[in-house]
Amino acid sequence: MNGSRITGLIVLALVWCWLVWALLLRGGGFTGKNVFLIVASGIIIFVPLWKKYFRKDGK
Q1: What does pTM read for this prediction?
Q2: CA distance 21 to 25
Q3: Of 10, 40, 46, 53, which has the maximum CB count within 10 A?
Q4: pLDDT score at 55
Q5: CB 46, CB 52: distance < 8 Å
Q6: Could you give the CA distance from residue 49 to residue 5 in angstroms, rounded to a whole number?
Q7: Mean pLDDT of successive 10-residue stretches along the chain, which has 59 residues
Q8: For residues 49 and 9, is the Cβ–Cβ distance under 8 A?
Q9: What pLDDT is recorded for position 59?
């Protein structure tokens, strides 16, 4: 993995963390709905990237 991909993933993770912080700050704190939104958005964003760049499947 080259440097530009690592930088892109770091920027994406920082933006996601900033949005999670904003959701918790403005959305009423830790509620069931907010926790679900955080987990679901993390899965939607990071699982495909994990499968594409980090999984060792022998290809």
Answers
A1: 0.81
A2: 6
A3: 46
A4: 77
A5: no
A6: 11
A7: 85 95 92 95 93 75
A8: yes
A9: 56
